[in-house]
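Let us practice reading a record.
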Amino acid sequence: MITAALALLFAASDAPAPTPPAAVPAKPKKICRDIGRTGTRMSKRKCLTADEWAVEERGDTGKLDVQNHQFKQNVQDQLGGGGR
């Protein structure tokens, strides 16, 4: 009786492992900087990725909006959401 139970247990362990869910893409690392504000001693922190900081320093915020939209769309497409 015990040998039959053990045989079933080992037979069940030979089954293929279930496939893991789709991997979520890694988020880019955020870099936080203190932004000085006029008229107060309190500073404000702003956290962006390295690419976003490069765009910010050039003063081209229109491209930043496009990049954010493209990143969000890519994540949705990879997760299968797509919901447009």
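A brief commentary: The helical segments are 2-13, 50-58, 61-79.
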